[in-house]
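Table S2 (text version). Query chain:
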Amino acid sequence: MKNRMFIAASLLAALSFPALGQSAKSLSETAAPPSALQPQRVDANTFVQMAANSDMLEIQSSELATKNAQDKRIQDFAHHMIADHIEASTKLKATAQSKTVPATLDSEHAQVLQQLQRASSKDFRQQYVQMQLAAHQKAVALFENYGSNGEDPKLKEFAQQTLPKLRQHLEMVEQIRNDSENEARKAQGSARQPLDQRN
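Corresponding structure-token output:
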């Protein structure tokens, strides 16, 4: 029992969220390095708890984005996340019938959502993308782990079947992140150009 508690605590530490709102840093700098996303093996109950919280955070944060995001690309991405994670949540509940599936966010995920809720209209886009990047890195690591090492055959199959879509989500948000940073660099270059020409 103590060993399982230690493993769960180790996993939670490895998959903890970075603070949102770090506007001075690029989104790539806030993303967790791959070495930080190698959690230890988890039991079925821990997997269900973490997968359910991941789905709920994705859904609720993306519902917020459909209202607060200013550009269509983010709104389209948010609608995609809502649909896919509602589907994943429904499958998780059907698969984990003998397990307790949480219906509300735990304190860590609730805090992440609250930070996003407090974001200004100016900062919302960056904070939402940052949160999605971190959340999907952690979800991919979790589902890879359980899909390879899971003890419950049905949950293990669920993890394996859901993983490709999570990887697709991660690629999507990485592309959004990269495009945003490229646009920011171009804008900075354009702003410096008149000064450079005067010199």
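Notes on Table S2: The chain has one domain: 41-192. Residues 153-198 form the longest helix (46 residues).
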